[in-house]
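Exercise 7.
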Amino acid sequence: MTLLQSIILGIVEGITEFLPISSTGHLILASRLLGLPQTDFQKSFEIAIQLGAIASVIVLYWRQFLVPAVLGRVIAAFIPTGLIGFALYHVVKTYLFGSDTVVLWALGLGGVALIVFELLHKESDDAVADVAAIPYSKAVLIGLFQSLSIVPGVSRAGATIVGGLILGLSRSTIVEFSFLLAVPTMLAATGYDLLKNASSFEPQQFGVLAAGFISSFFVALLSIKFLLAFVRTRTFIPFGIYRIAVALAFAFL
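Solution. The predicted structure, written as tokens, is:
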């Protein structure tokens, strides 16, 4: 992988990480378009580069992590995701990350599910409107919804947001909580993967990873602002349509 390819993938990651369209799925498909084989380093890159986007959340929301009520709910939601991710790490990285078929089916079916959900969902007047007021039981359930995203193409943001809406959170609240929950989730995923695989990286590969990290960080700052503005007035139906279109386009290709 060249530095330019790393930067391109970093831009893809920064745009897609917080939108309900699957950053991992897009990274895998973008790697195919760039002619990059699914080596062990490539798979680790597609996991670790997400940390760049997550760093943008820390910059924008670090004060939230200092609020005990917020931090407690983030930890409660992370626990089920962390346990499931740890248990299935080998299966996911060995079999699912190398499968275009899994990604395309997850993108397409996820798009259909997103459209159907938005057509049926109506936010209640008493929806939870503050992250600090999310019941701990619902925080844990949101973590279970997030764990669905271990399948490439499902979308961590999409699974978390839809789960939160089903559980009675307001749209803006669950979007913000999804941002916050991404931090421990991706820190754990990246840290665990690097711990197992970093010793096999070649020296120049760390520079490639750094380039992707930096580009994804700056692009993600803009992506977060876009999504916050978008959810105030619109549904996620356009993202559902986009997912289906991408899945069909790549299936024909």
